[in-house]
Amino acid sequence: MPPIGNEYAAEQLKNQGNRHFKDGEYEQAESLYGLAIQKNSANPLLFTNRANARLKLEKWEPVIDDCLRSIELLKENMKGFFYLAQAQLAINHPNEALSSALMAYELCTQSASQTSNAATISALVLKCKKAKWDIRERERLRRRADLLCEMEAILETQWKKDQEDVEARIETGEIGRVEGQEEKASRRSEWEKKQSDLRTAFFLSDPQNLEKREVPDFLVDGITFEIMHDPVVTRNGRSYERATLIEHLKRSPTDPLTREPLSIQDLRPNIALKDACTEFMEKNEGWIYEW
Questions:
Q1: What are φ and ψ of residue 42, in 5° steps?
Q2: pLDDT at 210
């Protein structure tokens, strides 16, 4: 433990940093939080304060360092995981970001004092999950494009070989120049038709999978972050998957995000949303379970 005088000095420096942060002076805030950490490096909140200032400055790696240090000092560290997820997402590490965001969400919903942050953290979880999905989508589309390129290359290689064979026959006198040119033109026409047929077959064989696959936010449950099958709506107008929400209410008779009193009797079927979910699932059944 640091001496009492150092703790007091660290608190004063933190308060000064808070004032600068509130005024949008993030560099000054970062510096003052750093000085506070020098006085009391055992306080995890000082590291999350500096991480937040560094988030505003887009210093992603230092944010991650601060968050990890803060989490080492305090395991149940909602802000630490929340800021960590944002920085990890910014440097294009969606898998790690999703894990951190889910941890922040879990800690948030377990604490009655943190419920005001629940909607914000829920939105971040969904953003991380979509970023993770987008990377998979780009890779899938890239592979499909590569496959088409490979097949076209095979056709082109064969066409060039045919051209060389015709030219060799011309050189040996097996066929005349005019006849050879006509045969070359015919082979070229065949190659172009095969190429066109290949592209048509390729793109028509699976048109849905050649488009970017996305899940609308309103179809996603705010507790599990999976697509809903049987949504119900609460008194405040927010919808959840029925089974998931009932399981939550058995443990805690409160709204997962607002912490307002909520019972199973308060739930009502969201028929329009259920129809939208069903339609989306049926239309995209070929890939939706990968999401």
A1: -95, 0
A2: 56
Q: In whole angstroms, what is the distance from residue 169 CA to residue 172 CA?
A: 5
Among the CATH numbers 3.30.40.10, 1.10.287.950, 1.10.3210.10, 3.40.50.1220, which is that of 217-290?
A: 3.30.40.10
Backbone angles phi, psi at 227, to 5 degrees: -70, 135
Equal fold, 4-127 vs 217-290: no
> In the chain, which ranges are continuous DSSP H helix?
4-22, 26-39, 44-56, 60-73, 78-90, 94-110, 118-171, 177-205, 242-251, 271-283
Strands laid side by side in the 239-241 sheet:
239-241, 231-233, 268-269
Six-digit token pair at 244?
């998931």
Q: Does domain 4-127 have CATH number 1.25.40.10?
A: yes
Give tens-digit pLDDT for 248-283: 898 889 888 878 899 999 999 999 999 999 998 888
Annotated domain spans of the chain: 4-127, 138-210, 217-290
Contact at 8 Å (CB) between 227 and 288?
Answer: yes
Higher pLDDT, 160 or 146: 160
Q: Are the beta carbons of 20 and 28 closer than 8 angstroms? A: yes
Which pLDDT score is estimated for 25? 95
- The CA radius of gyration of the chain, in Å to the nearest whole number, is 30
**Residues 97, 85 contacting (CB under 8 angstroms):** yes
pLDDT exceeds cutoff 80 at 205: no
Query: How does the average pLDDT of the chain come out, rounded?
Result: 87
Q: Provide the pLDDT for residue 212.
A: 63
Pull the structure tokens for residue 17: 């940093």
Residue 109 corresponds to which tokens in the numbers above?
């919903």
Cβ–Cβ < 8 Å for 273, 266: no
